Amino acid sequence: MLHYRTLAVAVMTTACLPVATALAQSNETIILGAAVSLTGKYTTNGEHTQRGYDLAVDKINKAGGVKVGDKTYMLEVKYYDDESTPARGAELAERLIQQDGVQFMLGPYSSGITKAVAPVTEKHKIPMVEANGASRSLFTNGWQYIFATLSTSEQYLTGALTLAAENADKLGKKPEEMTVALAFENDPFSQDVRAGVLDDMEKLGMKVVIDDQLPRELNDMAATLTKAKALKPDLLIVSGHSKGAATAVRQINEMKVNVPILAMTHCDSADVIGKFGEGAEYTLCATQWSPTLSYSDDLFGSAGDFATLFEETYGYAPPYQAAESAAAVQVFADAFTRAGELDPQKVRDALSETDMMTFYGQIKFDETGKNIAKPMALYQVLNGEYKVVSPSNFAETSAVVPRPSM
Q1: Topology annotation, domain 8-151+291-364
Q2: If pLDDT is split at 50, 70 and 90, which confidence band does 406 have?
């Protein structure tokens, strides 16, 4: 099923005409193409991604659009639903480029789908700014047309290992005496997070006692939690996107699994606080961004200003997936202006020279297209709120270790 799902803030959608025709009729609009997950297992984060794109498009257009040479353009996004599958994402990228005439692409949600789309944009030499493909394997292929606003996946939970080591004495242990249980989805993103965790564990001398793969549909991790109750690891680390995070928090509470330190990805996009209340307390959560961080720009204002606008527009606080997606649109707008024309190669070259501060943080790409300027952060759920506890120079408060027993 195809979706042209565009919110009113972003569209001048021509459902009956291909975009190539629309472009010919309106030379004052830049069309950005995007295949995102509006159905399937990544639906929640696909919606966050789309809403981030749409909010930035609306904000830029209301500010007067994008200046390119001696002309000013409005932005518009053409969407298709990739159904949370890599093969569909690649097919729709071909459609956007070959049939719809799109010359600039925004990325899909997830590393797996981004990895399927990137060879398509590379083949056609179409620049893609992506915000939700963090796997480091995306940046080891020599691709020249992919640029990512977010920090890569191996960095996601390094802060959790550091925090655990710093608090080992509260468990009556040394860091090298600590034991760790791992539960990860078998997708490029989660496996890269796992690789980063294992690297840090080796440096710290920690021992793996459970190393499990989450089930395909991310709906049951009882087998892992049964082992965790028996082996009593000091630290449990989970990565399975928003559905995996929700499953983990729900079943840890249902099964009354007492683990001193619990860390995972995608807490905020899974809305673990809203869904589980006190059951989410003391969970450590990897985050690319927080409204409390001291980042700002001329378009959105501060990180907090972006959060306020997003919540006013969509009725909930923005997860980082929405923030990094909005930043991707800003990066394209900045590159269009610096390129001075809309030739895809010139825009690609301008993207490679990006060095800008946004409400989401500093964005500067290395030769592989990675953002090398923005660090990860770590939340802990405390009294029903996300509080930054790492890195120390951005921390709002100290982490609570160990988690109180249930």
Answers
A1: Rossmann fold (3.40.50)
A2: confident
